Structures are given as structure tokens and as C-alpha cells.
Amino acid sequence: MAKTIMTVDDSTSVRQLVGFTLREAGYEVIEAVDGRDALRRMKGPIHLVVTDINMPGMDGIELVKSIRATPEYKYTPVVMLTTESLESKKQEGKAAGATAWIVKPFTPEQLLGVLKKVLG
Amino acid sequence: MIDRQKEAYREEAAELLAELEVSLLELEQRPDDTELIGRVFRVLHTIKGSGAMFGFDDIASFTHDLETAFDEVREGRVAATPELVGITLSARDHIQALLRASAGGEAVEPEAGQRILERLRRVIPVPEPSTEPAAAAGPEPVEGKPEQPTSYRVRFEPEADILLTGTNPILLLKEMESMGDYSVIAHLERIPELEEFDCERCYAYWDVVLTTAMGENSLRDVFIFVEDRAKIDIRTVSRASLEEHRRLGELLVERGDIGAEELDRVLDGIPRIGEALIDAGLVTADKVHAAVLEQQHLDAVREKRKKAEAAATLRVPAAKLDTLMNIVGELVTVQARLSGYTVTCGDAEIGFIAEEVERLTEMLRENTMSIRMLPIGETFNRFKRLVRDLSSELGKKVDLVTEGNETELDKGVIEQLNDPLVHLIRNSIDHGIEPPEARRAAGKHETGTIQLSACHAGAHVLIRISDDGAGLNRDAIRARAIERGLISADAALSESQIDGLIFAPGFSTAERVTEVSGRGVGMDVVQRSMDALRATLTVASTTGQGTSIALKIPLTLAIIDGLLVEAGGDYFVLPLSNILECIELVRESQSEAARRSLVTVRDELVPYIVLRDRFAITGEPPRIEQVIIADTHDGKCGFVVDRVIGDHHTVVKKLGSLYRHIDEVSGATILGDGTVALILDPDKLSASVLREAVQ
């Protein structure tokens, strides 16, 4: 069965790009606009989460912490989208339990490369 | 696609700029409101980040300094003075101008932006833009620099809590495996006794010997995300090791596991070095094992080099492979029987042997399947001629571009793909690509392009046939479907539903019957062959820009992973690829919903089909039944059975011709004890029940 990936970003255009790239590659995609929305939508099998760091409501760091505290999704890989200006945030994300990170801007190929790495 | 993305960004940026303006004006009133400051920062951050993603580099670099400035404000190092707000407002206007310019509006003079940034720097000492290149954006694509194959020894010691970051260490090992010749040994001495064992921790660490031509940087890239959560030691194995056989002791010294003097001391008059070292307590058995492994690995690589000149491939008649596959199929069946017997007889010794047999059978099965895999490129290449002949016949100019030629698929699947692909390509040339004049008039290049691509996606292969022609004529499709009675005149259909109609039986939109693709058989032939392959078909079309048809095909047909279930003493297999979950059902406790055959799964009503009813199985069902929730073409559907037995490697056997017309059953398999189990097709089963319900 196709693997399901959740993409969390408050930016519609980025969410669209990520969603489009993943669907093209044969993944099922669930979209969420921020951390809180993501947690609400987390039902059933989710094999990976791609999340932005800076979001209103609940940000990416809080989201990772919540995911790691949910028994069902404790081991779900989380890929963070960062910008180079947020080095400290990246460290925070790692400490919170992020699996991998991608620096914006990235190409669809880079995204798929990282997914392949953490998802097999 | 990219244009649509850019448009999406422009719309989004316009909204964000509006939000920015409002927030800034409020900020002027309440300069200490941290929430407002956060909002301004986030808007700038999104404009910048997304801008860079979609090629709006001017906007991204201009916004960068503003973002940095507001980061300072957010950190409380600088105040949000009215002056700063004023500058940011004019910056906002500048971004808007840049956006308009990018959409074909009036060009913006670059000095205007510079002036704003200079003003900003006077208010806030923005740190000089860092000249450092951006940090690695994940693994860079490896440059195709041919390197001499080098052997590395890698020790990978993940921290015990690495699993809690969502990292699966096995995947990293697999990634190395894909890079070249690979040997691995796991060190297990840290695994505690069962009472102290915590299954959330990773106790093992690994030694890998890898011979690869991809270079050390690619090897280091494997660990890019775990660098600070694991001890990673990568060393080059000396060239000498590759030239000649190395003695075990030398390797242990070179690996740093033991000193040369200690070795000499132990070496005195002892026949087997490895055992002696272990006895002397100088190294653990695993360490010696790892070194032996390295020794063997290097020997093997050396051997391989020698053999490389000799021909490495063998031509074998396809029939022999089919026979082999059949035998493996039988073996899988027998092995299942053995495993089944082991459970009942309770003899531990036999259990041990059965597990070994199971492991070997699995390896044999995978290996045999991989032998049957062929690259699809050969099939793709055959279409070049077809495209050439057909396009000249129709007076059109068409180029065929292929991609992913190396993608491998089961031989049987490739054979069955040929005809549908011919049909789809013919259709693209005939109906999709316009004649040269029409293309010129539409501002396209005279020569149309048909792209044929293949790639792996999980347990499937995606094959896509796309053209840059006129796209599907939805009005014509709709009119034809109504005319043919496929849909009612007032049916409200989405675009994709209309597109899907071209695969409906008896459909053909050609206004005239052409030699090429209008022989009365429509695209439903394609749909039927896809069903036979358990593949799915999807169409995407943009008027004026072309049509893309995607085929999602399972990797192999001969053996599938299934779920074995039982109802009234009869056995059935459901393909595991469709199954979502299994739940219990107590029908007597159901009331209203039961009569409508619906069950509630996670707040969602799912219809179910009772196999006992469907297949007229008599007898009393157990009080607690099981519902297998599966994903079908018609959405989720449950299948009620008495009992779920478990995973089953299902060797698919075709049914005799007498039973071919039964759509709901896609085949049969023989269980370990000789019983026959029918393989159900969840899509067909739910569709047929649905059809009957409608009637």
C-alpha cells in the first residue's frame, strides 16, 4: 500500500509544491496548515511528517514534541523545513526529536532524496 | 506546473502583504505586543522562504534583511520603533512592486530596494549578510565523478535513544548496501538480559566493510542526519589489503582492536589466532568475527575483480525461469505447511529447523523474483518505431522521449503491458497531438512530444504516458457519454470523472473512425488489461497543454502477500496491499446500522459485505466476527469473516476456464495442508455488491 505522508506548512504554495511532488512520487498525502491542525488530522497510518518550523498556532518544534509524546507516532520520522537563518531553531528541532531537515529553497529531487533516506 | 506554482505564490504573497500591512499598523500602536512582532516575523519569513522556493530570488534576498531585523526585535534586542515600522511599510510596498513586475507589470528600479535596505541598516545594525554557503540541503546529488573503487570500514554506533528521533538505523545500513559491495556484522554484546531489555532502545552497533566507487563524501552523506546521535567512524582500508590476502592478526591491529605487541605475545606457538585472542580475553568474539568478515569481503572483492573480465551474464531460456518460479511457488506452499505443523507439534527442535527453512525460502523467493525482473527500456524503445510510422502516416510531427528505462518489472508484467501501451500511445498521437498547423497557431512547437516514463513507487511501478497536445475535449467526452447512455444527461461530474469516462466500455470519441485508434475497441481494452494486472489508471489533462495517463502497476504477479481468512470452514485470501485494518464485529449488539450493513470505524461509517452471505455458506457464524477493512475503488469496504488466520505468501494459481467469468475471484492458492483458498478481488467484490444494491 502507498505510504502516507503528512505535510504541515502555513504557506499554501509550499504545501502545494510538497503535496504535488509527493503525490507524483506515489505517496498518499495529508495536508495540514499548522501543528494543531496536524495533530487533529493524525489518524490511521502516517509514515512520515514533513513540517515547516515557523507556523502560527502551533509551530514545528511543538509539533515534533507532541508527536514524540504520542505512543502511536512516537517513531514516525519527522522532516523539518528550515531556512539557513534559523540555525538555532534547527538545533531546537533536533533536540525535540526531528529526524531530518531540509534547507529552503529545495528542489523536488532533494525532498524525495531525503524522504528515501528516512523512509527507505 | 511551475507556472501554476508561481501563480499560487503570487496569490499567497498578496494575502501575506495585506496581513503584514495590518499587523504593522497595529504594531505602531502597540510596539511591545510580542504576538504582533511574531506575526510580522512569520509573514516576512514565509515571503522569503517560499519566494526562494519558486524562483523569486529578488524578493527572497530583499526580504532577508527585514526578516533578520525582526528576528532581532523578536529576541528583544531592538525595539519596534515607529521609524522601523515606517521602513518596513515602504519595504512592503517594494515587495508588492516586485511581485507585480514578476507578473509582467512595470519593472522596478533596483536602487529603490537598496535605499530601503540602507535606511534599515541605519536603524538596526543588521549583521553583514553571511557569505557562507547555505548549509547542506540534505544529501546533494552525487556528482558523476568516476572514482576508483575504494574499500572503507565503517563503525556505526547509534546512541541508545536514536529510535525516538524516528531514525531507523537499518535504513542507513541498507543505503550503504546499495552503494557497492557490502558486508556487515552486528555487535550484540550490549544487549541486556530480557528483564532489563527496553525495546525502545537500540543496543546494537555495526561494523561494515564497503567497497564503492562513489567516494567518501557520499558515504559520509549516509549519516548526515545522525552525525550527533551516533558515533561514526569511517576509515579507508589500505590499498595493500586489496592487493593481497591479509592475515587476520594484521587486520585486527589495523582496525585498532588490538596492539601489535599484544598480538605478538599471544601469537607465540598458537595455531588459530582468532580463538587464541578471544581466549586471552583481548578481543570479543564479535570483533574477531568482524575482522574475519573484512578478510572475506576483501577476498571476494579481489576475486570479483579477477572475474570481471569473464562474461558476467548468462542467457537462459525464459521457460526455465517459469519452471523455477513454479517450483519456488510449490516450495513456499510446503514451507507454509511445515511452519503450520511446527506450531501444532510443539517440538522446539523442529521449530528451529522450520524457521531456517522459512528464512531460506524467503531468500530464494526474492532471488528468483529478481531474476525475473527486466528493465522496461527495451519495451520503451520498441515504441520509437511505432511513433515514427504512425506520426508520418497522420501527417504529424511527434518526438518520443523516454525516461526511467532502467526501471525493472516482472517479465510477465512487461509482456502484458505491451498492448495497452501501444494503445495509449496510438491514442496520444491520433487524438492528443495536433497537426503542425494547429500547433503553430496555438503558439507551440510544430513537433509534439510524447513522454514515456517509468519509476518505482513503493511496491509499485509508475508508468506515465504524457503528451503536450490539445488535452481532452471534455465537452465532446460528455456529449458522447450521454449519447452512449453511459451517464445521464444531467449528471454532475467532476473534471476527473469526465476524463475517466474515456476508459468506460464502448466509448470512443474519435469524430471519424481512423485507421489508428478507432476500430470500435476503445480505451476500455486498456482498462481491462490494467485490471488483469491489478493496476490502476489515472488521467490528468489540461486543455491546450496536454494529457497525462499514469499506470500504477504492482511489481509482480506470481506471488502476492495476502491475508488468509476463514468463513464457515472455507478459506479466502485478500491481497494485503488493499487492507487497512482488521476490527471485531458483534452483530447481535448492532442495531440500526446492522440492517444497513454498516460499521463504525474511527467515526466513519464503512459498508461491509458478509462473505458467508455472499458465498452462500451455511451454518452459524461465531458471536464475534472479524471485519477486514480494505481500500477499494469505491472507497473503504469491510469484509466480514469468521476468523483471521494471518499473513500468507500467496502463490497465485489461475482458475480453470470454467470459472474465468467470476470477476470477484482473481485466482486461487493452495494452503500448506492442501486446502484450496480463493483469492478475492476486493474492488470487484465491492463493485458487484454495489451494482446489485443499485438494481
What report would you give on this structure?
The complex is a heterodimer of chains A (120) and B (695). Chain A has 120 residues and is of the alpha/beta class. Chain A has five helices and five strands, in the order βαβαβαβαβα. A five-stranded parallel sheet of chain A has the order 2-1-3-4-5, sandwiched between helices. In chain A, α3 links the parallel β3 (48-52) and β4. In chain A, α2 runs parallel beside α3 and α3 (60-68) packs parallel to α4 (87-96). Chain A starts with a strand and ends with a helix. By secondary structure, chain B is an alpha+beta fold. Chain B contains 23 helices and 21 strands. In chain B, a hairpin with a 2-residue loop joins β15 (598-601) and β16. In chain B, α3 (57-74) packs antiparallel against α4 (82-102). Chain B starts with a helix and ends with a helix. In chain B, 31% of the residues are buried. Mean pLDDT of chain B is 80; it is low at 129-145 and 510-520.
